[in-house]
Amino acid sequence: MPPSLAATDIPCPPWRRLLALVYDLLIVLAIVMVVGLLCQLVTGGQLIRTGAAVVVPAWYQALQGAVVAAYFIGSWRRGGQTLGMRPWRIQVTRDDGGAPTLQQALIRVLVAAAPLVLLLLEPVIGLRATLWTLLAVWAGWFAVALFDPRRRALHDIAAGTEIRRLD
């Protein structure tokens, strides 16, 4: 991080962090596509089986999750920012303003991703209902920031981190 940029004590407004998340979703999409391409090449195009039901190997899902988690954890640990956070001039910090520890970054990513467990409901309630449920739960995760004085979302509270604006 350039020396001219320093985290302030000003909490990040929720709208700014959500816009940064939209940017990061584009990065995550690119990561998932590259990992998918590499896995298709390694398996000779036989990664996902279709037929009466689509079968996606559990190892592939775990690999995708690990690579995406590594992007977020590495970004937060390296400079406190993902690529999506940079244009919005926001940064993840510990409560005391320092860089998040590995444990904090891991807790933050796991709690933020926890609603993905709801995808297991898809065979029972259908894809559309599952996605709306997932969206509603994530909205609740971030709605906590509207009431927290430091504008922390649920995963920030769990990890002892917060998002601050940069000068």
Q: Could you characterize what this model shows?
A:
The chain is mostly helical and 167 residues long. The protein has six helices and three strands. It has a three-stranded antiparallel beta sheet with strand order 1-3-2.
Q: Would you spell out the secondary-structure blueprint of this structure?
A:
Layout: E1 7-11, H1 14-42, H2 58-79, E2 90-94, H3 102-113, H4 122-125, H5 127-147, H6 154-159, E3 161-166
Antiparallel strand pairs: 1-3, 2-3
Put the structure in a nutshell.
With 167 residues, the protein is mainly alpha-helical.
Radius of gyration: 18 Å
Largest sheet: 3 strands, antiparallel
Structural class: mainly alpha
Number of helices: 6
Principal-axes shape call: globular
Helix content: 55-70%
The CA-CA distance between the termini, in Å, is 12 Å
How do the helices and strands follow one another from N- to C-terminus? EHHEHHHHE
Strand neighbour order, sheet with most strands: 1-3-2
- Poorly predicted sequence stretches spanning 5 or more consecutive residues: none
How confident overall, as mean pLDDT? Answer: 91
Descriptive tags:
mainly alpha, 6 helices, 167 residues
